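dumping this here before i forget
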Amino acid sequence: MRPPHVQTKREIEAILSRAGIRPRKRFGQHFLIDGNLMRRLHKSADLREDDLAVEVGGGTGGLTDLLVASGCEVVCVEIDRTFAALLERRFADQPRFRLVVGDVLHRKHEVHPDLGEAIRGHAERGAGQAKLVANLPYQVATPLIMNLLVDYPEVRLMCFTVQAEVGDRIIATPGTKAYGPLSIASQLCCVIETVARVGPRSFWPVPKVESLMLRLEVKQDTPIGQPNLAAFVEFVQNTFTHRRKTLRSALGYVLDDARRQRVCSLIDATRRPESIGIDEWVEVFHAASD
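structure:
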């Protein structure tokens, strides 16, 4: 069986030329033109007909073609109205394709309500899994991943390409510069696989940075538990606001004296937040919450 066709650079340029539009830097519009990598991203999601594929930034529909061909339900969020019009025409005859026009982040800590409705509605129907499958724009990647982890446990898998700076933060280990709240939340909640490192020339227009293709499979259970996850993430984020201070000093901005002393009796509080491992963060959070 021949591998599914993926839009080439020449085809993307022709689509844009006919529509009279150009990629816009403000929306992070860099199109993945390496067919093998696009197919790897699609394959990593293992889409079934009863799944919901969530795409962010449909662009000219290159990845959307593969998602629709899988036979699953597809909801695509596109902020650029010129590209949205193009996608609407391209997939007008696809009854399982839904387009949401707007910013995927309705607010910094809230996804677009139409997307939220699509995810929860799919779960209520008792169908398959909701899965994020996307080439994520740099600007939305971190808050979107955090929002989905905290507020949408219905999303069981995230397969995406993202700027390496963000990807490296997701997989960073304690004691490294990239390690922080995104690392801790992602690794606490997910089994993470690096699918590929992607060079700039795999995109058009060519960006100045490398990218990372990741697969995050959301765990069924964590030591925190879904009801407490939002409070845990907020606690870690607030503490990391003072990441250059010792843990004892940083916690002074977050906890009252009694709870800070209780935490400091369990761990070497002269360490900095960036050196604290995930299991230790769980222990610190539980001690601070008691």
